[in-house]
């Protein structure tokens, strides 16, 4: 063969080798040189922290401290969760001050609790920040590149569309669905009591509320396609359990690509979830009417519209983007309200005087409205609202926030290069005695008697974040939680079961690690 004929092949091989070498050099720089450079840069600005190890960062110390804390029993009624959920924050803030840097694998995380710096990150310079590469890598398992994981112009585009589905007038229309799902729970609990001869009986509120909140999400999101919504919920729940297992090694480069049993299961479930949502969306597009549920509201922005039922709009979604937003709403919407109501019930069991006040208010408001439950009725539940805010303060669904610099920027007098992340310990802010007083670890809903704005400054209370990226479903979650609590308190006296063990864990969200066993008794 003429050597000249081999020249094109040789050039391809050389190009491939050069690309591989370039990629390898880039990764070496990313995992070896960049952390050294960043650490030196941050130390020059006075930022100290624990010494990181190659690739691992401080993960071994974090894991060890969390495991030690988890095996320490907690007293029922002890709401000082920092030692259990973020023991490394307590340890390192004592050594290095409240602004320090630690390493999540190769990702530097600057811990910040100063309200002025938090305001810059979440509001003033919000456009400079987004989700980190590590967050997006982990979040892709559950949420794809949905609103919560998106950055930059992609985030702005998605936010503009999703916000239209969460306007207050749209949320108000969802109250009847929320009410019916809650009534189903009451029927189930009544059946338990009847089987027990009317005597108080034990229920796992965490498990039962998971059914209710999934019910509500499935109905409000998919309406007539409710059964498909429940299938999606079960698939997402399975993925979440596997995600927690695999997330332990997320910081390892290439961990998601390894052919482990967990990764294979995740990929299989993801394919099932994608197929389910794709079929559901296509079926709705080919039906005579799009409907009025959340799916229909977002379908009005889909580009692929073979039936020509969608009005023209500058806001457009692809089918894949819609799938990702359905995943996001399903997972986040379900988890947030589930945890909020579960912890609120526990707190009301520990404080029966507040349980009685909330019950009295719910009965009075419903009596005045002729037992009509709607958004206007729920808005009058001031005491229930105070209880919800205090629950969010002590047990925020997300114990911390992470924001990555999408460009070189400054926060306060600190220069941060692109890729550096800030870690905002929400739990520490919510229980800071300098911000909330000596009773910061106590359940005192009266601190919110005149609303959140009178109880604290904006960046002292961040259960739903703040600024442009504040949770788009905040009003939905609060309204749903108010309704569930008010309906349950009308019907039952709640108490903690002797079998309840106080074991909060941070597993994507802050949840009861061993369930929420309650004793219920029918009200007279």
UniProtKB/TrEMBL annotation:
Names of the cofactor(s): heme
A single GO molecular function term of this UniProt record: monooxygenase activity
Keyword set, alphabetical order: Heme, Iron, Membrane, Metal-binding, Monooxygenase, Oxidoreductase, Signal, Transmembrane, Transmembrane helix
Coiled coil, from the record: none
Example of a GO cellular component annotation carried by this entry: membrane
Binding site for heme: 471
Superkingdom: Eukaryota
Endpoints of the signal sequence: 1-20
Subcellular location: Membrane
Transmembrane segments: none
Family stated for the protein in its record: Belongs to the cytochrome P450 family.
PANTHER family in the record: CYTOCHROME P450 FAMILY MEMBER, CYTOCHROME P450-RELATED
Name of the molecule in the record: Uncharacterized protein
Organism: Selaginella moellendorffii
């Amino acid at each position: 063969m003429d050597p000249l004929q081999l020249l094109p092949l040789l050039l391809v091989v050389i190009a491939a080798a050069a690309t591989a070498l370039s990629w390898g050099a880039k990764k070496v720089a990313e995992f070896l040189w960049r952390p050294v450079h960043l650490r030196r840069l941050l130390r020059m600005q006075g930022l100290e922290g624990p010494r990181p190890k190659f690739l691992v960062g401080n993960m071994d110390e974090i894991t060890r401290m969390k495991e030690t804390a988890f095996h320490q029993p907690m007293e029922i009624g002890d709401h000082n969760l920092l030692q259990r959920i973020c023991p490394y924050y307590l340890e390192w803030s004592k050594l290095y001050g409240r602004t320090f840097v630690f390493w999540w694998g190769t990702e530097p995380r600057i811990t910040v609790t100063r309200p002025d710096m938090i305001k810059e990150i979440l509001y003033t310079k919000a456009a400079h920040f987004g989700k980190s590469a590590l967050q997006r890598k982990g979040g892709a398992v559950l949420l794809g590149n949905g609103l919560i994981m998106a950055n930059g112009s992609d985030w702005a585009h998605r936010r503009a569309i999703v916000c239209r589905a969460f306007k207050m007038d749209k949320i108000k229309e969802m109250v009847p669905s929320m009410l019916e799902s809650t009534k189903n729970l009451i029927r189930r609990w009544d059946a338990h009591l009847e089987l027990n001869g009317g005597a108080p009986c034990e229920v796992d509120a965490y498990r039962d509320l998971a059914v209710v909140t999934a019910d509500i999400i499935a109905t409000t999101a998919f309406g007539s396609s409710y059964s498909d919504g429940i299938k999606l919920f079960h698939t997402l729940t399975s993925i979440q359990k596997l995600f927690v297992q695999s997330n332990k090694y997320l910081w390892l480069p290439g961990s998601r690509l390894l052919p482990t049993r967990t990764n294979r299961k995740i990929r299989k479930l993801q394919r099932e979830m994608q197929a389910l949502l794709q079929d559901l969306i296509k079926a709705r597009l080919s039906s005579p009417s799009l409907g009025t549920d959340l799916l229909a509201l977002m379908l009005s922005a889909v580009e692929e519209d073979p039936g020509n039922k969608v009005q023209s709009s500058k806001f457009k979604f692809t089918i894949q983007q819609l799938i990702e937003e359905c995943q996001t709403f399903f997972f986040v919407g379900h988890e947030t309200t589930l945890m909020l109501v579960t912890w609120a019930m526990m707190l009301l069991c520990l404080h029966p005087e507040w349980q009685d006040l909330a019950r009295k208010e719910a009965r009075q408001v419903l009596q005045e409205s002729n037992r009509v439950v709607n958004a206007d009725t729920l808005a009058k539940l001031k005491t229930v609202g105070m209880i919800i805010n205090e629950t969010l303060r002590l047990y925020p669904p997300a114990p911390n926030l992470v924001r990555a610099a999408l460009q070189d920027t400054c926060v306060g007098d600190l220069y941060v290069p692109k890729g550096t992340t800030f870690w905002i310990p929400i739990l520490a802010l919510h229980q800071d005695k300098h911000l909330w007083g000596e009773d910061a670890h106590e359940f005192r809903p009266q601190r919110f008697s005149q609303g959140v704005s009178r109880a604290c400054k904006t960046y002292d209370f961040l259960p739903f974040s703040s600024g442009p990226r504040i949770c788009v479903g905040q009003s939905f979650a609060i309204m749903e939680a108010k309704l569930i609590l008010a309906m349950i308190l009308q019907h039952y006296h709640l108490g903690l079961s002797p079998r309840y063990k106080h074991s909060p864990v941070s597993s994507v969200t802050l949840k009861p690690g061993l369930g929420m066993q309650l004793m219920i008794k029918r009200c007279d």
